Amino acid sequence: MPSDAQTIEAPAQTRLSEPLKTIPGPPVRFRDLVSFLAFGSPRDLLSFYMDTARQYGDIVHFGRGSYSSYFVVHPDYVKHVLQDKVRNYPKKNRFNDMLKPLTGEGLLTSDGEVWRRSRRLSQPAFHRQRLAGFATNMTEATQAMLARWAPLAERGQALDVSREMQRVTLSIVGRALFSTDIGTDSDEMGRAVTRIFEHFNHRFRHPLSWPESVPTPRNRRFHTAIATIDSVSYRLIAEHRQADTDSGDLLSMLIAARDEETGQGLNDRQIRDEVGTFLGAGHETTAVTLAWVWYLLSKHPYVERQVEAEVDAVLGGRTPTVEDIPRLSYTRMVIQETLRLYPPAWGMSRGIAGDDTIDGYPIPAGALMVLSPYVTHRHPAFWDNPEGFEPERFTPERVAERPRYAYFPFGGGPRQCIGNEFALMEAQLIIAMVVQRYRLQLVPGQHIEPDPIFTLRPSSGVQVTLHAR
Ligand code: HEM
Q1: Radius of gyration of the chain (CA)
Q2: Which of 345, 343, 363, 362 is nearest to 353 (CA)?
Q3: 3-state secondary structure string, 179-229?
């Protein structure tokens, strides 16, 4: 079957009576270009997208030449790119390529038939019954974190809950993948993943930094971290193959997976790329979401009390299980609203394979297509009081009133996040277990803003103190 990039549907025909519309956008200023290329100006980048949408509307063109970009904001246009004409908007683009040393030709960064096979083989691992098996990993990792917190709480010592969420989610994805905990500071795999993310964030901030082929100290550290992922992954793959038993983890499932159409399994390189993909895609995003949940709850005591009331009523002090997930519905709405305000994947990009039109606007092949959940999630036509934190927006009735793509923290269409249910369940379980024990209070005097690097992390962490309930 031809790849996505090759099977381009014909551009939607516009009737002769409707001339193509001109896409508005800011003029190119030389100093903006230099500043963006040299310094990245990440904080400015977020306001750049917000201001651009406010000023120019639902579709915007900016940049010229190889930086020519189309930014779509309206839910219908987002749907066009992610769902209706998905084949015309492949993943292949310069931001996607940045991730490839970690994710290779795995699910997140491949296209065409390679992606389709990978999705077919990975999907069963995320079915509801399989997910239930991961719930115990999640509660065990959270229990270990709470045990680490106990002496700090007694001493009234502050901790960075953003970093703690990175540790616990890394531990959970490690347990889900390999049945072992890689989330501890001493673990080489955990350290390697953290270093790789630091590197991606640096490159995002400094697009003109030395290419990875130049042996600067930073690049050498990055290559060492990638070599660690390679060697540990290949060792674990070999051990799992040799043991030849299903240990219930993702690695066993990937090894056992056979393509229904061809009967073929994955080779070691393909499995290594999926391991890198799940390590990368499966922890940072959930950690960032949880860091913002704690920030928002401590800023909104009324919401915090409702979460506590729900957790107490549903669990009555016992450890949550997968059966409790549907009953922790308010907690889930809090997570959804957090993902609206601070979507970790705040911007997404696509290539443009062939000329197209969106609602009569011409979209030429070769440019970059940009989407931003952060901006669309604040679209005033679909969200009242867009900056307000209101979990009730996510009651089923109110969700049904909005267009599907007014909200897309997990993307959409065939490339929608495969781990969305995993992530929501994980966040519900962690929140419930923390809330059972503690109320988190922000250390005063912090100035916390979203930092639009690779993901939307809270700038300089979230320092909190723990107060026993
Ligand atoms: C709150 C947590 C998460 C958020 C916000 C999130 C967000 C996203 C988004 C926006 C995409 C689509 C990217 C695009 O279209 O360019 C995506 C894809 C993906 N995510 Fe997640 N994700 C989360 C958690 C997870 C978890 C826990 C896993 C795995 C255990 C995971 C694995 C993946 C994979 C493999 C893909 C690629 C899917 C494909 O292209 O077929 N994600 N995620």
Answers
A1: 22
A2: 363
A3: CCCCCCCCCHHHHHHHHHHHHHHHHHHCCCCCCCCCCCHHHHHHHHHHHHH
Q: Whose CA is nearest to atom 13 of ligand 1?
A: 411
Q: What is the pLDDT of residues 197-248, one digit of tens each?
A: 889 888 877 777 888 889 999 999 999 999 999 998 999 899 888 887 777 8
The 10s digit of each residue's pLDDT in 95-129 is: 788 889 999 999 999 999 999 999 998 888 888 88
Domains parsed from the chain with CATH numbers: 30-468 (1.10.630.10)
Q: What mean pLDDT comes out for the span 182-188?
A: 68
- C-alpha to C-alpha distances, 400 to 73, 121, 164, 389, 407, nearest whole angstrom: 20, 32, 35, 19, 12
Lining ligand 1 with CB less than 6 A are 107-108, 119, 173, 277-278, 281-282, 285-286, 289, 344-345, 348, 409-411, 415, 417-419, 422-423
**CB of 276 closer than 8 Å to CB of 106:** yes
DSSP state of 356: E
Query: Cβ–Cβ contacts within 10 Å for residue 113, how many?
Result: 12
Question: Ligand 1: distance of its center to the CA of 420 in Å?
Answer: 7
